[in-house]
Amino acid sequence: MPPSRQLTRRQIYRRRRVAVFGGLGLLVISLTYLPLTLLAPLAPALVTVTTPVDEIPPVPALDFPGYGASAIGAVGYPGVLAQSGVTTPLPMASITKVITALVVLDAHPLAPGESGPTATMTAADAALYGAYLAQNGTVSTVRAGMTFTERQLLELTLIKSSNNYTTSLAVWAFGSQDAFLAAARAWLTERGLDRIVINEPTGIDPSNVAPVDQLIELGRIALAHPVIAQIVATKEADVPPFGVLPNTNLLLGRQGVDGIKTGTLDDFGANLLFSADYLVGESTVTVIGVVLGGPDHDVIDRDILTLLESTVANFTEVEVAADAEAFATYDAVWGESVAAVAGTRVTLLTWAGAPVEVDVVAEDVRTGVAGEDVGDLVFTSGPMSASVDLELAADLADPGPWWRLTNPAALF
């Protein structure tokens, strides 16, 4: 070999050292790179949310009476849904008796089916008969020594609407009318019914007044009390010694009507605080309404049925999500795309064509399996809401070792 081609020992050593350390370097890099790429967490998939717009059918105008004051509300809906006529307080008449019954039950609770304690009528109770009869009020005969249970007195108050027994109930419960009135006014104040004025327990005094919006709230409170709700829905009650007493509310059982209380004053007109239950799609709707100052009960009963028909037509149950309907898409950095869908069909009750809003809460997803919960869908329309899980429609699988090794920039 020519001298110029021969390697010195130093050159050979240097080359061997480079080879050794180069190999060691490659080994170190491999031992570091492979675990980092193969075991590194994947970046979250890019999520794109889609919110379909559901069409809500048009609804008719509410058909309110053209006299006095009226309002419509519903259980689960705060305040009033709509009202018509004057907004100033008007005479409640015997709707007052609902307040009396609730205040008495607050002091002397009863459970459904219980009769409660017994009250014995006195000479003062007997005298009430003539006093209310002279005012052309509804009365039932009474004599000292007669006994009635609390439940029977409530039935005489709310079903028969006897003024004399309503006052007897209030005095029995509180000892005097003044004590009852103090309790009733405190009860109203505690519940925010500050524009309702009560000066005696029956409503025969026209100074017992209320605005229609607060009577809607009174109706909600009455229906929430199981004893009151049961009594006002009763068409007739057997109260010895009077026998069967028909309810003064002749709308009971018609078009879903199940309460609440009539009221009549000769110098003002006919009133009715009413409730009715309807099935709208799969939802039960309890409507509460009031009409004050009608010409007579035949007229307001007819007009209330018309109002109820237009009211229930304003409730619509909308399908806001079909089963497995897509609301989002997860796009992974390695090119795979998976939809996120509603876990089940969802419907929502809407009022008067109110729009439906959807809030899509989608969690970060790297990999997952079909059916896995990856968030929530929350639908709202007014005070109504419904929610359902957001689920992966298919597997979002790991891209595998080859993609990880060849796409390190997508991992770090």
Structure report:
This protein is of the alpha+beta class and 412 residues long. It has 3 domains: 3-39; 46-56 and 319-410, Sandwich (Peptidoglycan synthesis regulatory factor (PBP3), Domain 2), CATH 2.60.410; 69-313, Beta-lactamase, CATH 3.40.710. Helix content is 32%, strand content 29%. The protein is built from 10 helices and 19 strands. The strands form 6 sheets. A 6-stranded antiparallel sheet has the order 1-14-15-19-18-17, with no helix packed on it. Strands 3-2-12-11-10 form a 5-stranded antiparallel sheet, sandwiched between helices. Helix 2 runs parallel beside helix 5, helix 2 crosses helix 6 and helix 5 crosses helix 6. The protein starts with 8 loop residues before the first helix and ends in a 6-residue tail after the last helix. Residues 20-31 have low confidence and may be disordered.
Structure in a nutshell:
It contains ten helices and 19 strands. The chain is α+β, with helices and mostly antiparallel strands and 412 residues long.
Mean pLDDT across all residues, rounded? Answer: 91
Low-confidence stretches: 20-31
CATH topology of the largest domain: Beta-lactamase
Strand content: 25-35%
Q: State the separation between the terminal residues, measured CA to CA.
A: 52 Å
Assign the CATH superfamily of the largest domain: DD-peptidase/beta-lactamase superfamily
Please summarize the sheet with the most strands.
Answer: 6 strands, antiparallel
Tell me the number of strands: 19
Radius of gyration (CA) equals 37 Å
CATH architecture of the largest domain: 3-Layer(aba) Sandwich
The helix-strand sequence is HEEEEHEHEHHHEHHEEEEEHEEEEEEEH
Q: Can you identify the CATH class of the largest domain?
A: Alpha Beta
Q: How many distinct folded domains? A: 3
What form results from the Cα inertia axes?
A: elongated
